[in-house]
Amino acid sequence: MTATEEPVTEIAAFPEDRTCPYQPPSGFRAAAGRGPISQLELYDGRVVWGVTGHTEARRLLADPRLSTDRRNPAFPATTEVVGRIRNRLTPPLVGVDDPVHKVQRGRLIPSFTHRRINALRPRIHEIAGRVLDTMVEKGPPADLVTDFAQPLPSMVMCHLLGVPYEDHDHFEQRTTRMLSGENPAIAMGELREYLLALAGENRHKLNEGLFGDLVEAPEGEVSRADLVDLTIVILGAGFETTASMLSLGIFTLLDNPERLAELRADPSLWGAAGEELLRYTSITDGITRVATEDIEIGGVTIRKDDGIIFLTSVLNRNEDVREDPDVLDWHRPTRNHIAFGFGAHQCLGQNLARIIQEIALQQLFERLPDLRLATAVAEIPFRPGHAVQGMIKLPVTW
Ligand code: HEM
Question: What is the documented function of this protein (predicted)?
């Protein structure tokens, strides 16, 4: 049966707001109870496939018959806004299939190796320390979203891209506007102009960074303008996710004080804790694709042009993959989660994200041993289901 042919008994909606910011929505859990692949209904009434089985998700995410090309009219729109602008969304890398994807990704891989990213550790330490100094001087209280979770990745991105120091304010203001959703297209256009000028004036040479790697490389199949667009995609993919990961990770720890106490007692657990928090919070909940051919899998037939959505939050709570998946546990092997996706488009920045998370959380909780929420949990706003999951505000005191 196809997504539209299967008799509708019960159907989960996508997206669905979480009721607790770090728990999967109840509709997604119900979908998982109906089998590894079941139906989901989008805002416009379209029925697509929701994947909740771990094995099926890995097979499908590695299958070249699934496409990420947003220009395909059959690519599912998950919100009304995305539906309106979908055909204008032609992001390189995240929105292209092989063979072009392989070429674009190949250009970036040398800048994201373990060795290159590990070499950033001392600088990330220093940046986290500076962000904390500013916050401590101002507070308490503080909003950890605007005072910590957003400025830290923004400063790391400036460093990674090699934005000269005197341009940091200009650059950070625009990345923050892109992140906050206030005229994101205008902010993105301004960033594009800025990066093209930076390359044109050769000022990027003042700093070593990913952007320098890209614009110095021989043009080959990818033009200079495309490389700037690739850089913007990296910013978009890396900034919002990292800021959300930090805000939601910190909230989860403050809301689970006994787990936080374990980390305070044994700081060697911070690396494992970062990984477990990625699995547990699954901030990118809903990886989207369209089928370009018929595919038989998990007892259903996915037809050409069917939409497919991977429900990461429940995929990462699958009992076939790990015991007690609803328990936060720093002592389990957690690497086989799907928080960074899987297959050809698996997160390119995952090593960087891991290092930022480990350093940021450890420094924050060591520097402020009495850090606690300044408002009742129920009053702290978090992001709606269609966005990357994270906190809108995180009022704290110490
Ligand atoms: C906790 C933080 C992060 C999470 C949860 C996350 C999650 C993801 C996921 C799920 C995908 C796959 C999307 C898909 O298959 O459609 C992805 C792709 C990607 N991520 Fe991340 N990401 C994070 C941080 C970063 C950072 C820090 C960077 C870069 C500095 C980055 C750069 C990218 C890029 C460039 C892609 C596209 C890769 C491709 O299409 O080949 N991400 N990310």
Answer: Involved in the coupling of aromatic side chains of the heptapeptide of vancomycin.
Ligand 1 atom 7, closest CA? 340
- The CB of 339 under 6 Å from ligand 1? The reply is yes
- Residue 289 structure tokens: 């694709």
Q: Say if ligand 1 is within 6 A of residue 242 CB.
A: yes
Pocket test for ligand 1, best of 340, 357, 383, 389 (most atoms within 8 A of CB): 340
In tens, the pLDDT along 334-368 reads 778 999 999 999 999 999 999 999 999 999 999 99
Residue extents of the structural domains in the chain: 12-397
- Atom of ligand 1 minimally distant from the CA of 93: 40
Homologous superfamily of the 12-397 domain (CATH): Cytochrome P450 (1.10.630.10)
Digit-coded pLDDT (tens) for 230-246: 888 888 888 889 999 99
Q: Which atom of ligand 1 is nearest to the CA of 342?
A: 15
329 Cβ partners below 8 Å, 6+ apart? Answer: 276
